[in-house]
């Protein structure tokens, strides 16, 4: 059963958001070493309930929080989404050295990211 494994907070001013979430929740936020501007968010110690996530600069300037579900195959999952009335908002794309991701919407327009782990992606 696919579970939520990641969240992404999209903001227009990453530095301001980093300062806020670090001070308010005590989250550890560090710049990812990959090819895009992205910050990894650690919300608590390993082994305790909860999920970690990331922070990115939003393309539209509109703030948004997206959840990501880990699946065995992004390609297979996208078929299931469309067969059940959902839509593909952003097709399958690589996260170099990490895996594959896509963004879907349910029939009511709610967004949900999907992720497939694959260290060969890129």
Can you tag this structure with a few keywords?
alpha+beta; 122 residues; 2 helices; eight-stranded mixed sheet
Care to describe what's here?
The two termini are 26 Å apart. The protein has 122 residues and is an alpha+beta fold. It has an 8-stranded mixed β-sheet, covered by helices on one side. The chain contains 2 helices and 8 strands. The chain is globular.
Helical content (DSSP H or I, runs of 4+) = 10-25%
- Cα radius of gyration in angstroms: 15 Å
Order of helices and strands: EHEEEEHEEE
Figure out the total of helices.
2
Low-confidence stretches: none
Briefly note the structural class of the backbone.
Answer: alpha+beta
Mean pLDDT value: 90
Shape: globular
Strands, helices and their partners?
Layout: E1 3-11, H1 14-25, E2 28-31, E3 38-42, E4 53-57, E5 64-70, H2 74-83, E6 87-95, E7 99-105, E8 111-117
Parallel strand pairs: 1-4, 5-8
Antiparallel strand pairs: 1-5, 2-3, 3-4, 6-7, 7-8
Quick overview:
With 122 residues, the chain is α+β, with helices and mostly antiparallel strands.
